[in-house]
Structure formats: structure tokens, C-alpha cells
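Thought: the user wants the 3D structure for the chain below. I'll pass the sequence to the structure tool as-is, report back what it returns, then summarize two notable features.
Action: structure_tool
Action Input:
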Amino acid sequence: MMDFRERFLNTDKNTYFIAEIGINHNGVFELAHEMIKKSKESGASAVKFQKRNTDHLLLPGLEIETPTGYLSKNADDLPDESKAFGTWTYPDKRLEFSDEQHLDLWRYAESLGLDYIVSPWDENSLDFLVQNEAKVIKIASIDCNNFHFMRLVASKRVPVIASVGMCNWSEISQTWQIFEEANCPLMFLHCTSAYPCEIKDKNLKCIPVLRQLFNQEVGFSGHGVGFTGAFGAVALGVKVIEKHVTLSRKMSGPDQAASLEFDEVTTLICESNKIIEALGTTNKVFLDSEATLHGVLSKRIVTSKSIKANDQFNFENLKTVVTKQPGGILPNKYFEVINRTSKSDLPKNHILEMNDLV
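Observation:
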């Protein structure tokens, strides 16, 4: 199976966590800087933003609505009003940064050791990422079955991470074929595009199916406010996790309420790494750490009745007991004892040793 993470992201064995800042900066440049810093402090491996050029995104002549909804200026700017997800104006130019601002944020993120990942929503934004030698490109769920755009993205041959929310198996397979034909590396992130996503809609069982279908590493993009989906994904072997982050869920903005605060991000990353460590290996052997309990509880094979020389050991004349004495034959050697004969006369409750056997 191809390990996308090790080839194109990093070789760390822990969780590669993408802090999806997205548009939760609310168009405030200083806020974006602060969120990048907080992402680093929380243990993230990468930050992710979105980029739109409305001149290329929209049909020419289409009138853009006047944006509605208050956008918090900082974590303490918490108005009383609230807007339901899906009722915000789209696209909202207030949430977009210029090319120069993105390059500034890009440099800042990399100076902190973070990967800077962007979801392009149009051809112009895609070209910006390619021209500036993006490490990877992230494709949002809404475009994963946009086969025209996927052909364009794949033609750039920059490694791509694509969320599969709102897609069915046939569409996912078609996108995979597009990237295969273009010889462009692709990794899917299992995703449910609901903000926030209910537990019943997470469908984590799709993760091993995705992995098996394409013989490829699979990630997880979560839109819930808890840890359940991410922990479940990690337990299924996922090492690339993307979650929306915010300075405060109480802030006003389109995606704030479906995001994790940074102290929660720290907890999520820490516990995910523990799960990865706990998954361990498929090599089932007696562990050094098990020796203490084994020494206390383990039994030995003893005679359950007196035995004459040349008598055959069998189920009826043997039993296992705790002896609290050194030596003796462990029960897992039972089939090495059964049906063999005794060298000498043995009393009842004799602790068998291998030299008692012919």
C-alpha cells in the first residue's frame, strides 16, 4: 500500500494533524497569524486555508450578494446574534486574502515548521499554488466529483489530498481514475459534509473500504465538535487528520461553531498519538511487560495420581496447579508431555520436569 503521508508530508509515525483554519480568521489578517501560531503550539503538522478568486469562481455578470452576518474581529468579540450554518452569504469577499497576504502567511507557517496547505476553489487560485510550488494541494468535497476541475488539478501533477464528502463510490472511483491517468499522487480523506456532523452520519466503516479499493493510505476530515470521529478513524489506522480550528466557538462566523478550540486540538493530537502507539504491531508474542503477572499466576503440570515407570502420561493422570516454586513444565508444553512415558515411579502431585519423560 502506498504511504502518501511518508512520501509527500512527513515520515513521523504520529498523527499528521492539519489545522483547518479555513475561513475562521474572518478575513482578519492578524487573526490568521495568531491562529497559525496557536496551531503550532497545539501540536499541528500543517495549517490549511481556502482561496477563492470570485472573478474566476462565478459566472461573468453574476451579481454578488451583499454579505450578511457579523464577523468577530477577535476571540473576545462575541456578539449576541447567531446565524445557522448554510445561511451565510457565499462567496463572501470579506473572508478572502490577497495573493500577497497568502504568501506572507505561507512564509510565517513554514518559519514555524508547519506545512501551508490551501484549497483552491477556482482555476486562478490553483495556478497560484502551482506557481508557488505548493507541497500538496487540498481539494474540498464539493469539487471531488467536479471531473472537469479534477482533470485540471491532476494535470498539474502536484500531490493532492481530496475530501470525499457528498460523493458516492462511483464518483470517487472516477476521480481516482482521472488522477491515475495523469500520474498524479492522490490521497482521499473520508468526510461527511455536515457542519457539525452527527455521530450517526460519520460512517467510519468507509475508511477500510477506501483503503482496500485503491490500495492507498486514507485520511479523515472531521466536522464535528467532539473527538469521536477522529479517534475512531485513528483506531482504523488513519494517520492524517483534518479538523476545523477556532479561537472560540462563540465567535461569529460561518464555520466557527463546527470547529475545535486549540486546547481541544492539543488533547486530540495527544490522545490520537497514544492510540497509534497502542495499536502497536500484529506480532503476538509474550511481552516483557507480561512477565510479572505471568510469574504470579502461571501454573505447572503435575501428576494427579501416582505413576509407575513406563506409564503413559494422559489427561486422566495430569493436572495444572499454581506451585509457587521455581522450575516445572508450563501448561503450554502440554502437548509435548501427553502420550509420552515416565522414566521412573512418580508420586501424586509431583511437579513434572522434562527429565521425568522418556
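Final Answer: Structure generated. The CA atoms of residues 253 and 349 lie 77 Å apart. The longest helix spans residues 262-279.
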